[in-house]
Structures are given as C-alpha cells and as structure tokens.
Specification:
By secondary structure, the chain is of the alpha+beta class. 37% of the residues lie in helices and 14% in strands.
Length: 98
C-alpha cells in the first residue's frame, strides 16, 4: 500500500529531524499528482508538532493532546500508531477502535 510506505518514509524523515507530528489523520494526508503522472502522499499540517526532546510545540500555541493532559510525553510512536489506524481503516473499512 503506497500510502503506508510513503507516509511512513515521511514520518521516518521527521523522526530523524527530531520532529513528532502528533496529529496524523486522514485530513492531514494529501495525495499529490506528479508531472510524471505518478502520485505521492504528503504529510500536511505540522501545526502541533513538537521537537522530540523538548516539551514545547513548534508553534507558539498552547495546544496539548491527551498525553500532555495526563502529564505524559509523546514521541514518534504516536505517529506510527495513527498511521497504523489509518491503514487498518483503509484495509477493512472499519475504525481500529469502536
């Protein structure tokens, strides 16, 4: 499935740069049409992203997710879990959790 492969590569590049997206969802994935006729999945909206070893976001807002509300930190695994949930929905037509 090209979505999982391409978005996974994008998340790996973000991780290497020390960035956790924190908001991977279908609305933040975009299928771009290339001039060559192919397609490329892109990750959008890094608005609530954070640097992996820092507590602040990359933006100046004070947006927190459920992990931060519970006093927990979030890392790249949250992005991978979200991608897996999207892949599950694509393959089965059902949400991962109901």
């Amino acid at each position: 499935m090209s979505l999982v492969h391409q978005v996974g590569k994008g998340l790996a590049a973000a991780r290497e740069a020390g960035i956790v997206h924190r908001d991977i969802k279908p609305q933040n994935l975009f299928l771009a049409e290339l001039h060559s006729g192919g397609h490329l999945w892109k990750i959008l909206d890094f608005g609530v992203s954070k640097l992996a070893d820092h507590h602040g976001t990359l933006t100046r807002g004070h947006v927190v997710g459920p992990e931060q509300a519970r006093g927990e930190d979030v890392d790249y695994r949250a992005d991978l879990y979200s991608l897996a949930a999207i892949a599950y929905r694509c393959l089965t037509g059902q949400p991962a959790l109901s």
